[in-house]
Amino acid sequence: MTLSSGALFALGLFSALWLLAGLWAVGRGIAMQRRAAFVAGQAERLGSLVEASPQLPVIVRADWRIEASEKLGRWLGLEQGPRNFDELRGLGSGLDLDGHDALRQAILGAQRGAKPFTLSLKPQGSQRTIILHGAPAPQAVGGPGSVLLWLSDATDGQHALAQARSERDEAMAAFEALSGLIEAAPFPMWFRDTDLNLALVNSAYVRAVEAKSAVAVIDGGIELCETVAGVSAAEAADEARIAGSAQIRTIPVTIEGERRIMRVVDVPLAPTGGRVIGIAGYAIDIQELESERGAHRRFVDTQRELLDRLSAAVAQFGPDQGLAFANLPFRRLFALEAEDVSEARAFARLLDAWREGGRTPEVRDYPEWRQVHVDWFAQAGASEEDWLLRDGTHLHVVAQPTPDGGLLLIAEDKTEQVQLAGARDTLLRVRTATFDNLFEAIAVFAPDGRLHLWNQRFRRLWGIEEGTLAAHPRVDALMGGLADRLVKPNQISIVQEVIRAATLERQQRGGEIGFADGRYFDFASIPLPDGNALLIMLDITPSRKMEGALRERNEALEAADKVKTAFLSRMSYELRTPLTSIGGFGEMLQAGYAGKLSEQQQGYVDAIMDSVAVLGRQIDNVLDLAQGEAGSLVVERAPVDVRKLLDGALTDARAIAAAEKVELVGNISPDLGRIDGDAPRLSRLVAGLLDNAVRYTAPTRKSGGRVLLHATGDAHGIDIIVSDNGPGMPEAVAAVTKGQQAGTASGGIGLALARQLVAAHGGSMEVLSEAGQGTLVRISLPRRV
């Protein structure tokens, strides 16, 4: 069959097209193969990247099938990778019921409402924390209703986050504490930002500037510190920022309306040495400190002026061991020059100079001695030494380290005290020897009642061991064990009370105690000027025995005197009766009842009557004396003309004076007046004195005997004096006048009675007598009693 050319052309064209199509298909296949290989490589690479990624993709399809790598099973603790949603749970592994249900609900929400979600789940039996981010999957990935989950292991991140939160909480707590501390600080504090503007101030700052609040301070830019020397507060803070370190300045600041000296500190804040983020500042009130410093300087100056007036030598050395101060006694004692102080001469060099001048003790190893004393500066406590210098001076040296590392050196010249101590020791030995040889027992008690000193007689008296006394016991403990030595043991309390009165009340008291062995002692406690009390005990046993004998004798004498007085009283009454009869008959004879008497008979009767009168007066005197000694003498009170009474006494005494050839003289003042008294007894008193004076004067003088009656008076009373130039009063009679013994002489009775009568009239009587010179009796009687 023959084909037309058109057909051949069409066939050739078809074949060509077919060949081109085959070639294109082959090329297309090769290209697709290459792309498939590229895609497979890319898929493999993407799978590797996904496997190596910290996040794990999981696709949950609409039928709850799961597409995920085996890694999901390992994260959930499953034995194999899950293929459907229910396999996400296992026994003791996988998700728990609550987590499984929560994930289901979230997936349903994403499928139905296309809502993304985020969950945090913890597999059972594992510490792992898994974060799930879920959202609807793209159509090309999982098909309709699929959900794409991205899982990430947040275990390490959670730990880091928890730690970060803990650190944050701690930092916030520290910041709050620091903020509270800053707010509670009693001094102003503030913070400036990078622009040096105030960003934070505390309450003390607000009060200092008298602002309403911290906000008002910050908004108004109220500065606490004023511009000083052209530098403002902000400029001072900028200087601290530039310097990169704290800057301190002392300036005057007005605080709550009062001018104060403040120490202001600006501190640049640069965390870990980085860029400065702000300037912190604070101001401390040093007004009191500056005042105290000024006061301290004044105190130091005053102290040094005072030290210059002390007798003790005082020097102060600084921390560098240089001499800072030396008072005048120190400079004199150690021969210091002014330049030694001004140049702050070192202590070691001063020791060398003092050694050359003989102002240190002689020692065998001076370098060692010198180093020991240089070490005084480093010691913890004071050191004391006694230095004996070559010239015989005794120094007591005290070295006291000071808190600043210096040294206070005090030297006191004890030479005179050492000499006095030697003399004192000698005196103490003399005193001890004197005490021990005294007849009295002596003990000295201190103000607290302790035994201080004693002598051996005191120890032997009480029978106490020396060791007991050497312990210086208290008086109650000492005397409490000695009560058995006394006749009456309770009397020991009297001794204690006497000592207590002398030590505490400063009163001297005494007493008497008897010992069981028959001895008796007088004791007394005497307060001493130093506050102690001296107890003295004197043995009075012999005098006590003598006193007993004298007491017995006195009692016998008193009994005899009573017998004598009773006898005299009785005899006086018995004698008065016959004497009255004799007087009565004598008066009858004188009156002529028995007839006229001759002259001789008349003389006999007159003599009888004179004797009766004298004897009557003697009997009255004896009666008055007896009543006086018995205390029953009663005198009558009536006006008495004293001159008339004395003239009568002179007249009555002239007869006996003429008979005894004794001159009787009266010197009586005419204005004696009257006194209240017993006229008869006063008359007998004066008559008795005149009679005694005449009788004692007459026997010793052949001629020239003289008795004087002298009387004067004033508005208060009268004085009557009877004197003679006789031989003086015998001792027995003188004893009567002094009331020492009764006596029996008529003169003694008269003087004794005269004394009693004068005392009964409220007066006084004085008798002066000297052998060979005579006797004078002075009687003073008051006008009124």
TrEMBL record:
Q: Which SMART domains match?
A: HATPase_c, HisKA, PAS
Report the Pfam families cross-referenced here: HATPase_c, HisKA, PAS_7
| Reactions that this protein is recorded to catalyse | ATP + protein L-histidine = ADP + protein N-phospho-L-histidine
Residue intervals of the Histidine kinase domain: 570-785
For this UniProt entry, which residues form the secretion signal?
A: none
EC number(s) for this protein? 2.7.13.3
Q: Which UniProt keywords apply?
A: Kinase, Phosphoprotein, Transferase, Two-component regulatory system
One GO MF annotation is: phosphorelay sensor kinase activity
Tell me which domain of life the UniProt entry assigns to the organism this sequence originates from.
Answer: Bacteria
The name under which this protein is listed is: histidine kinase
